[in-house]
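Prompt: For my understanding, could you write out one protein's sequence and backbone structure tokens?
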Amino acid sequence: MTDESVKRRGWIKNIAIIFLAVLLVLTFFSNTIMNRSLPEVAAQYAASGSISEQIRGTGTVTPNESYEVKLSQTRTVESVVVRVGDEVLAGDTLAYLSLGDSDELETAREELEALELAYQKALLSATSSDYSRENRNIENAREALAEAEAEAEELYADSAAVDAAQLAVDEAEAWVDECEEKVETAQAELDSAQITLDKAQTALDELGGKTEGYSGDYSIVTAAKDALTDAKNALSAVELMYNAAYTAMQDYAEANRGSSTKDVYMRYLYNYWQTNKTSPDETAVSSEEFEAWCEAYAAIAAAEEEVSDAQSAYNSAQENYDDQYVESNTAEWNRLNKRLTSAKTSYNNRSAALTAANTSLTKAQNSLTDAKTELSERESELSEYKTALSAVKAARTTLEDLIFDLSEQQETDGLNSQLANLDLAAQRSQIARKEADIAEMEAEGDELTLTSPVNGVVTAISATAGDSVAPDTAVITVEVPDRGYSVSYSVTGEQARRVTVGDSGTVSTSYWSGDQISAVLRSVATDPQNPSNSRLLYFDVSGDVTSGSSLTVSIGQKSRSYDVIVPNSAVRSDTNGSFVLIVSAKSSPLGNRYFAERVDVEVLASDDTSSAVSGGVTSSDFVITTSDTPVTAGMQVRLAD
């Protein structure tokens, strides 16, 4: 073997050793290298606890009443003697005004001169025709129209309330349908249990008839059972007949029993009638009605006693039958009797389920009745409003007809003459109004001070010394603190149904907790921005509040306990609904690997940080809250340190 061959084999051996070493290193560190490329997630265990579901919103504080001090004509401000934030009383001087006639007063005087000139010219060409009756009728028709319009405005109603009530009816009907299906299912299960019970009873009865040496007569048990059934049917009939009176007597007994039980007090009321033949309290119940109560009590008590006696007789007959039969065939009897007992238990459970289903159905039907009543009231309001609109239309038609008739008559008698009289009347009214306006403007022009009409706080000043203020421009705004402050914000219709007028809210501000501020829900109104789905909550706020500041008001239900609570950041949703991602571990030769697994959930309640959920999540699950990159179900992840 040459030296060159030896050297070549040495190199090959060294390369193989290096390759295997590198491969070994990569194998040991592959998990670490791969983990660095995986999404890093933060997770925590789900837990049980309580959540207080709150409705929260932010609004701006507004005064319930503020007054804008305005001028009716152009005036020059000499000086303003108050500043924003000053408290003022009614009659206090706010500003001083310059003396002098305004442009509006001069214009009004010129307009009066023109009106008087036109009136004098019209008098020269007017005739003596008199249509005062027709004019009076027209004026009465105008008043009738105004009254009809005012009534229509007072009765205003829109279809949104009807739509909301109809939605409530639809939901209640769906609930009733669901409950009826449950009743049908429970009834079918009860019927099936009845068949099983009958078969078990028949098998036991037949075994009794086949046992040698058994002398018992099962017909006695059957007769006792039939008598018990008849007694129960008779009790049901009596309860149905006297239900109203008996229920009224129970309600009265419950309200007046004091420390006694209801049954003891009802027996006392019956004995009272037997002794006195009159009502113990004529102001609450008349003797005639009290007699009906006692008659119902006596009938139902007698029927209940019959049921009790029949039950005792049946129990005794069954016991006698059982005692004699067991001696004849103990083993078979025990087997069939156990089967019968199981069938009876199943029957009783199905019967209880049917009773519960019927109770739910009754609640759903009551809810449907209430929803239909509400819908009827809303529809009635809308109908009244439409009727009022029809009355407005009729009144407007009457007025138009009177005006048209007068026009026709004027054409007959001389249209030009009658029109002239109408013009004269209108001109006289214009002159009178203009004279009154001038007198008022002259009186106002003599006033050199601008005073506050109310007690309050100055919140805005829009003029300074030397400014010329135009008519109907707010010079100074005075806020009336005594009238209180309000805050409002918009919520969904579902949230609005969970609160009640009069509920207290918790206040927080942008700069402190708001402990010195109280808020009470004053009203719930339709949100004009989204009348079908949103409502406005209006709160009366008091305490250390300032107009224009921002307040956050929370209102809602008391806290409730839930089995599974997760952070809000863990709850996700897509087109298939809400879900969470939990961390599942799988073992491998190099250690555990972690994967994101989707679990569908239903969100039961939420607060600012957590949500109560139900579904496939348990308190032992490790739910993903955050990740450094998007994570989907099935992806491999690595846990944050």
